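Hi V.,

Quick status before I head out on leave. The structure for the redesign project is tokenized and pasted below; the design run finished overnight.
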């Protein structure tokens, strides 16, 4: 009997090195781990990929460590791992706040930080945190390792600089100085896709990022610059509403998203004063 998964192939690498060789020599292969988005696509019949590389058992891609002020998080680190990490709670509380907003406990146990990045949805809850924290994405192939600034990772809607033979292996966070803040606005308090999501760091030059207001997660440099130069929050709100490019879709309207984004900016500025 044929089923929805009959045409699909799942390749099981023996190690990280084996996975990288398979990507290089046996591609195209789509990496997967927690499968929280793959199963949605399969259920709705929108899944285009047919050959997958199972990474879930590769413990080399897990773990959280802090060395010389830099926090390194393996790509297969789950949201539950982030919530429970003393390192992340102390140094990246906005990432813990974002992880708590992602789905139910079952999703938090399976979903991974690397998967959220690879999926590339502009509504991804952790992505504004990575942008505001000036995170770095480690990309590895069988033949090289390179590091890309998270703010330069996406090239368009669900498109990135990752090459087919590369895996996202880790995310690095230089020391984050300043008060951190995160807020997600959705249809309900939990288990909903964000209508607008924001992360911010209040420092000499604030770092502010939004999701669901453009084809990718975005920093807002004009707004950041205005606040750094001493503009009032009302002036900054006006600049922000011109700087972002939200759209109308099934979840909300562009007008609503502009208003909410401006309100979140004001809440961030007040809460971190």
């Amino acid at each position: 009997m044929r089923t929805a998964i009959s045409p699909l192939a799942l390749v099981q690498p023996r190690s990280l090195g084996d996975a990288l060789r398979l990507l290089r020599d046996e591609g195209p292969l789509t990496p997967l781990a927690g499968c929280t988005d793959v199963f949605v696509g399969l259920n709705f019949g929108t899944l285009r990929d047919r050959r997958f590389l199972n990474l879930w058992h590769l413990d080399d891609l897990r773990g959280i460590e802090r060395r010389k002020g830099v926090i390194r998080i393996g790509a297969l680190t789950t949201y539950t791992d982030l919530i429970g990490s003393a390192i992340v709670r102390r140094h990246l509380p906005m990432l813990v706040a974002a992880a708590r907003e992602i789905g139910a406990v079952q999703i938090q146990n399976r979903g991974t930080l690397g998967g959220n990045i690879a999926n590339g949805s502009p509504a991804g809850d952790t992505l504004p945190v990575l942008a505001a924290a000036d995170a770095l994405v480690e990309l590895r192939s069988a033949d090289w390792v390179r590091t890309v600034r998270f703010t330069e990772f996406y090239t368009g809607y669900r498109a990135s600089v990752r090459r087919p033979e590369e895996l996202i292996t880790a995310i690095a966070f230089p020391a984050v100085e300043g008060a951190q803040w995160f807020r997600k606005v959705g249809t309900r308090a939990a288990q909903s896709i964000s209508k607008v999501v924001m992360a911010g760091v209040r420092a000499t030059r604030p770092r502010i990022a939004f999701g669901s207001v453009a084809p990718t997660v975005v920093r807002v440099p004009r707004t950041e610059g205005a606040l750094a130069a001493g503009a009032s929050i009302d002036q900054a709100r006006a600049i922000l509403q011109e700087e972002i490019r939200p759209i109308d879709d099934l979840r909300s309207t562009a007008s609503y998203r502009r208003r909410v984004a401006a309100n979140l900016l004001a809440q961030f500025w007040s809460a971190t004063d």
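Above is the designed sequence. The radius of gyration is 19 Å.

G. will cover questions while I'm gone.

Best,
W.
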